[in-house]
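Record type: monomer structure entry
Structure origin: computed from sequence
Chain ID: A
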Amino acid sequence: MSNFRNFDRDTGFLLPPSVNEWLPERHLARFVAEIIDALDVSAMSNSYRGSGSASYHPKLLLAVLVYGYATGVFSSRKLEQATYDSVAFRFIAANEHPDHDTIATFRAAREAKTKTTGKKPGGKPPQPPVEGPLPTDQINLTDEESRIMPVSGGGFEQCYNAQAVVAEGSLLVVAGDVIQAPNDKQQLEPMLAKTGALPEELGKVETLLGDNGYFSEANVKACKAAAIEPLLAMGRDSHHPSLSERFAGAPAAPENPTPVEAMAYRFQTPEGKKLYALRKHTPEPVFGIIKSVLGFRQFLLRGLDKVKGEWNLVTMAWNLKRMFVLKAA
């Protein structure tokens, strides 16, 4: 006779189930929920009105969004459906099922806050950079604030330029932004300001690695002013340097060098070559994983302000997923 376990889909629970029992102790969903629960979201919760039906707590909606971005579920409708179909999402949502309109509204948070309170958020609204095409130069019916930009491999696409400062070793994104200009040269100083505002507990930036797109004399001086050693490529390096070039010793150090000359000399030292080689192992894998593993290849929202917020969600989801892995190592 066959030896099979009996199963019955009609048997009810003798006791109410607990969502805390649905997942193993070590699970990304638990880690995300723990981190989000510890955040101060008073800026969001204080913007809710007390009248009408009770709202979903911002921490619950934020956890749903972040876990979605960390696992490749981006659209509001798919996130809503996941709170029914996925055990992990049921845990994240505490067995609640916010509808896709609620999720979508929470993700256009700045505009929603303005509509809810009738007051504009504090601070100046984000302004597009002066560099690049003016809004009158081109119109895109899907997103008027996006721009036509050259892309790697040739050709042009309607897009934004996402920026990220990545910490070597941990591969955590410590600062980010989204801009309309295709040129990166104007973005180094804003990124320096963002890293300079980070809590002291995170440590101090010692060296900044950047490709040729970020090189300019002004940027080198800006790094020096921030007490950071720059290693910004001054040109395109050949992909296959000869052995003699690769292992050549450092030339004599220049006397009284300018900041650019001092950086150029550092590139020729074994220590400088070793440091700059880390660049390809630091930001590029993060962008590659976000695109290929997380599956995030296009913004769902429209408009520069909303896209900035969505990029913050993407990098936050990446950081939590990366921290989950580092915690176990």
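Annotation 1: The beta strands are 147-150, 156-159, 161-166, 173-179, 207-210, 229-232.
Annotation 2: The CA atoms of residues 41 and 199 lie 18 Å apart.
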